[in-house]
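I am still getting used to backbone structure tokens and would like to learn alongside you. Would you supply a protein for us yourself, any chain you care to pick? Start from the sequence, derive the backbone structure tokens from it, and show both lines together. Go ahead whenever you are ready, and we will take it from there.
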Amino acid sequence: MEAIVEEDVRAIAARDLGWERLAGCRVVVTGAGGFLGSYLVRTLMALHRLGRVSRPVRVVAVVRDIERAKARFASVADAATLEYLHWDLNTIAVPDLGEVQYILHAASQASPRFYGSDPVGTLLPNAVGTPALLEALRRSADRRGFLFVSSSEIYGAIAGEATLAETNYGTVDPTTVRACYAESKRIGETACVAWQHQHGIPCFIVRPFHTYGPGLTPQDGRVFADFAFAVRDGMNIMMNSDGGARRAFCYVSDAVAGFFTVLLAGAAAQPYNVANPAGELSVMELADLLVGLFPEKGLRVERRFVADEKQYLASTYSRLVPDVRRLQALGWQAAITPAAGFKRMIEAHQ
């Protein structure tokens, strides 16, 4: 896996961005032990080695399990520039981060598997953790930017199947358990705008859609992860629906490059969709694609309809595909197709 992730990090760092603004900075990354957070950490740590900044970036990985995080980054060549801070963003308190220039907030339970089993733990890192981190950054003398990793879930229920621009908001019923994620992301975005308006903190908001790649786990619970790990394990893909729902799948290096594009070139307090509309597939098309990537395995897609035993609270969207023209106007383009990206993901986990 390390070789593939290193290639991804090099691809992100090769983007023509104002990386030098990060030189010598102390940057906090929350959710550093997770899928997206770990890519943010690895990219920041690699910038000096790859000649993108004149001085190393000092990274503070905010995690709940330091030993687990140390094991995750143990083989990273740049680990000497990394420090760890134990903090639980479910805590209703402001962490003492010391002097810091940037905070990249990527700590959140993204899988619907957790919305039913742990709605409180899903809600708090966004609804409480975001204001706490904003307040911590406000106390720094040289505060340069706050990146909030939001979600496409904030759009709620929208009639029709048109692509979603950043202003196409629908409704979310706050009295449903599944709303714990969408509503907490919405309040996180509002907190960013409020702290920028009142305290002058530059806040940048990204809304990833369906992001995949090395680092997802078999326990993730989302359909695309379940399918990918089934193929890795030489198992047929079990289709528990008609497979008609359509999603836009974005490989992790493209998504993280989009995050940094917004942080370094975007407009503050303005949300940006980060996704790959060219990666739109139905769930059935995705399943067929994945089994076709490894014909030597002789796998197939099987249909079955069973009761959900994982407390997975499914989305009601039939089509969830973004308009990314706002991000593209900053010079960003997706580079990895679903066929290439899912092949990389599965091979990384072999």
